[in-house]
Amino acid sequence: MLEPVIAHWLAEDASNTDVAGLWVAVGAAAISVGSLVVAGLSVRHAKRSADAAGRVARVELARDHRDLAPRADWFNFVTDSSKRVAQNDRFLVGTLPRTYRMHGDLIFEGGSRSPLVVTPGTTLPAGTEIRAWLFEAGKTVAPAEVEMRFFPAISNDPGEPWTCECGEAIAATGHESRGHWVLRLKVEPPPSGPWVAWA
Ligand SMILES: [Zn+2]
Asked: Which candidate, 65, 86, 93, 96, places its Cα nearest to that of 169?
C-alpha cells in the first residue's frame, strides 16, 4: 500500500526522487521490522497458547488422576463370626466402581508388614465385593493399618477398559511396586465382643 502512493508523489516532483527513495527504503524497512515484530509476537503468542494448553492438559490429567483414585468410603471393616462359632474374624470389605489391580499390606505397630490377602486376588473386578482377612479379634495381633497400592486395570481385565494418563506407572512390577494410587486405612476395631486389646 505504501509504495504506490509514494511512487505517485514522486511522479509529480522528480526532484524528490532520492529523498522519496530513502523514505520508501525506510518505510519498507519499517514494515519489515514491523513484520518481524508481529511474527515474533505471533510466535510468542503461539508458544504462550501452547504453554497454556499444556498447563490446562496437565491440570485436567491431574484432576482425572484424583477422580480415579480409590476412596476410603468404598471400604468397610466388618466382623464375621458366621463361618466358625466363637471366632471374630475381622475383615476389610469393599466394592469398587471400576476394575483395579491392587497389592496391599497389613502394617503392624512398629512398622512390620505382611501381605494383604484379598479375595478374589490381585485383580479386583468392578461391582464385585472384595474381602481381605485382617485378624481374629482377641486371638491374633491386629494390624494398625491396611495399605493398598492400586493400579488401573490392564487389557483383558473384566469390566470397561480404562486407564489413567497422568504419566505415573500404570502397572505393578511386583508386590512391592509403589502404587499408582496408595490408600492407607486405619484398621477399625470391632464395635463389641471379646476383643480387649483395643480398650
Ligand atoms: Zn494417574
From this structure: 65
The CA-CA-CA angle for residues 50, 69, 78, to 5°, reads 175
Does residue 110 sit in the same domain as residue 180? yes
pLDDT, tens digit (0-9, with 9 covering 90-100), for 80-117: 766 655 567 899 999 999 999 999 999 999 999 999 99
Task: State the distance from the centre of ligand 1 to the C-alpha of 132, rounded, in angstroms.
Answer: 25
In the reported structure, the alpha carbon of residue 104 is separated from the centroid of ligand 1 by a whole-number distance in angstroms of: 18
Ligand 1 mean position, distance from CA 32 (Å) = 48
pTM of the prediction? Answer: 0.71
Residue 99 near residue 84 (C-beta atoms within 8 A): no
Q: How far is the CA of 128 from the centre of ligand 1 (A)?
A: 23
Domain co-membership, 8 together with 81: no
How far apart are the CA of 144 and the centre of ligand 1, in A?
A: 27
